[in-house]
Amino acid sequence: MGNNLGVESCIKSFAMNNAMLLQDLLHIQKELNIDIGIERKEDSFIEDNYYSQFDLIHRSQAKQMSKHYELFFCLEKSIRDLVSKSIEDIENTVDWWDTARVPEQIKKDVEFRITKEVDSGVTRRSSEELDYTTFGELSQIIASNWDIFGSIFTSKKAVEKIMTSLNTLRNPIAHCSILSEDEVLRLKLTIRDWFRIME
Asked: Which residue ranges make up each domain of the chain?
């Protein structure tokens, strides 16, 4: 009997220590805005209640595609940051979008996309116009500002080629399709090419 109480006490102590450790890890994850693989309880509600109702094949494909999405997300954000920061530094203002640095047709197309998004009643994806541009338009902005980007990239044609490739690769990722083995390889090579033209 006494031995059972000792075991029960150890188990309770172990559970309590784990709960406290989990809370500490969740706090660190939230404070530092990093993902250390610990889910918050509120984040797991959908997964616990609905995720298992999706077909296993779709869940497996989602997991497989998530790494490609993360890679593409980081690449696209870094390209936009590079374009924005480079022009901002030359123009010496954060309001460079309204300058002659951006072709007029791109400004019109972006304005149309923003209006369409606002009119649909959803939250705007960004307050930055640059976030509404396509890869093709980003390529045009880079090409039309080669006085800035010529010192960053080795070739205007290479930038155009890589942006075209990224635009093509973006479609299956953005529209929840599976990348074939060849396209996964193409994505990796295109990312390598992107960094190579900045060497």
From this structure: 1-53, 56-196
Question: What is the distance between the alpha carbons of residues 103 and 140, in angstroms, rounded to a whole number?
Answer: 8
**Are the beta carbons of 162 and 197 closer than 8 angstroms?**
yes
Beta carbons of 83 and 90 less than 8 angstroms apart: no
Cβ–Cβ < 8 Å for 140, 175? no
pTM: 0.72
Q: Whole-angstrom Cα distance, residue 196 to residue 158?
A: 10
pLDDT at position 141 is 97
C-alpha to C-alpha distance for 52 and 181, rounded to whole angstroms:
27
pLDDT of the residue at 114: 95
- pLDDT at position 58, please? 86
Give the pLDDT confidence score for residue 52 in this predicted structure: 77
Asked if 137 and 109 touch (Cβ cutoff 8 Å), the reply is: yes
Under-70 pLDDT residues of the chain: 1-9, 12-13, 15, 17, 19, 37-48
Q: How far apart are CA 152 and CA 36, in angstroms?
A: 34
Q: In the chain, how many H helices and how many E strands?
A: 8, 0
pLDDT value, residue 46: 66
User: CB of 135 within 8 A of CB of 173?
Assistant: no
Query: How would you classify residue 176: left for phi > 0, otherwise alpha for psi between -120 and 50, otherwise beta?
Result: left
